[in-house]
What does this fold into?
Amino acid sequence: MNTNASPRHAKPFGVATLFAVALLYGTASRAADNPPIPDTLQQRIAACTTCHGVHGEGSPGSGYFPRLAGKPAAYLARQMQDFQNGLRKYAPMEYTVRQLPPAYMREIAEYFAAQRVPYGRSPLPAVSAATLQRGEELIGKGDPARRIPACSSCHGSQLTGVEPSTPGLVGLPYDYISAQLGSWRTHTRATVAPDCMAEVANRLSESDITAVAAALASRELPADTHAQPAGSVTPPLDCGVLGATGDPS
Amino acid sequence: MRWLRWLLLLIALLVVSVSGWLLFGGSGSRPTPPAASKIAAATLRDPALIAKGEYLTTVGDCAGCHTAQGGARYAGGRSLATPFGDIPVPNITPDRETGLGDWSFEDFWQALHSGKGRHGELLYPAFSYTSYTKVNHDDALAIFAYLQSLAPVHQPTVAPALAFPYSVRNSLKAWRTLYFREGEFKPDPAQSAEWNRGAYLVQGLGHCNECHAARDTLGGTPRDVHLTGGQIPMQNWYAPDLSTQKNGGLEGWSAQDIIDLLKTGQSARGVAFGPMAAVVSDSTQRMSDADLHAVATYLQSLPPRAPAAEPTSPFDAKALAERGEKVYAKHCAECHGKGGEGVAGVYPPLDGNSSVTEPTGINATRMVLLGGFAPVTAANQRPYSMPPFAQQLNDGEVAAVVTYIRRAWTNQASVVRAEAVSRYRHTPIE
It folds into this structure.
């Protein structure tokens, strides 16, 4: 650089030395005050963990910052990709992940997928026994007359999800589930075509959404909350996300 | 008094015809079909020219505007929001129906250099031809060759949504008289080749001045205003003054600091964020070392600035800053340090950071609200990040902590009030 050594540019050594001294001094005085910054993924992703929890446990008291812990990695990576592409709409998430490269998103997804933390209980709305019963019906049998498949037919017999791309539904708050089903209907949540979950959400009535969200949120957790192995279900609908591996590409 | 009536009539006629010319007068011309172009088709297929064009297209960050979220690169399909309305961003892939497939280089040059469309229509200056006019003929040809080498994507351009009178393209005649000087970059023989290369890139293809200078009420940048910083319309970010000299926005930045920021996304002095994070990731990190040095050399030659007016405090700034100090100790000091010194290579310093002390306080406020990752670059593929505090801190707390960091240590900037925080909390995120 600066091949045209004018006087103003002729002091790189002085500047560099000063800079190095300042850097050393800064580091030394910092070390005395604060522990060094850990070179860990957990430290790097403070932008994620401030809302979703250090172990992806979600924000207690707010159903809108969902639990990420234990969800299948490909599912989580796909969600970040969908936010990047504007298929899922939530400005703070779109802003946060807008620049992240596939490999980094995959690493972050794997971090949260590997977390094991207890599920918290979130508040339930006051719904009638009949509503809960309707919800249970949708979960276990669906509504063939309206071509609504059972939740369990894709999300696993224990609703703990299926590797690699289908999330679990048990342990999620009522607010979150009903908001997601609503957002599929209003096109603020979508994924690669064919978007089977959008089809299902649009076949549900509003009272069905309340019923299924309440029933899911009030379910007891099974002893094993791991997602079922890949290939253990045969989804009744054609789903774009299941055709892909969920790898952002 | 008969002559007076005649005079009035004459004046009225003049007014009508001048405004008629301004509003509706033809500036039309016919496109040059590619077959009639002076540039041979084979020239445009020259791999060396295409490769050069790819580099220049990256330097100009054409994809930054000409790509929709989740869309095909260079295929347009989005609008740019401006204070005058939404301006569609065209498809610049060589699709014959919806892109540049039927364009000749002459058409492209007319757009880039003169700010006129294929049929002579005046282009809205959201397309920064105020800067691109400085791009030389050879570079423009390389860019055109590269764009023509892309796979065509069929993507119709969305319709403009501009308010009257901006919806009348010929209203741009007046605008152009005020703000547009057509002409290629003229090297300054008194300066080095490196300086001239830097000036050419910064003033031309890099179009830095389109953000880093204030726009007036007509959306133009007065001619003598150069890289002195300004608020980006609609986006609500402040693009800082780029002088590294006394009272400059980058006062004390070395050439290496500038190069580091443009290449890696962060330097010892600060981290790129907001729209600049995208510019670094998409564009500047891919610039050659020689071009980065040239840019730094040129920016270092920008003159010193007049001192900013002493910030006045309309209310008790001290109490606000004291409250902010507590917020800082609780939420910020762990990473940015008690003295605002940051951690080299990880977290930016806040003391002496031009993004903290810029005139408006927008940047620090929005950073506190939004947080986010440092730019992703080849040199920093797994960047650290800052938590968004929008959920944790209310407007008063954000105002307090931003005021504190703007006035702590050696920083001496104005206070930020809760009302402003509330406004920026609701700025749509582009």
Notes: The first strand of chain B starts at residue 78 and ends at 82.
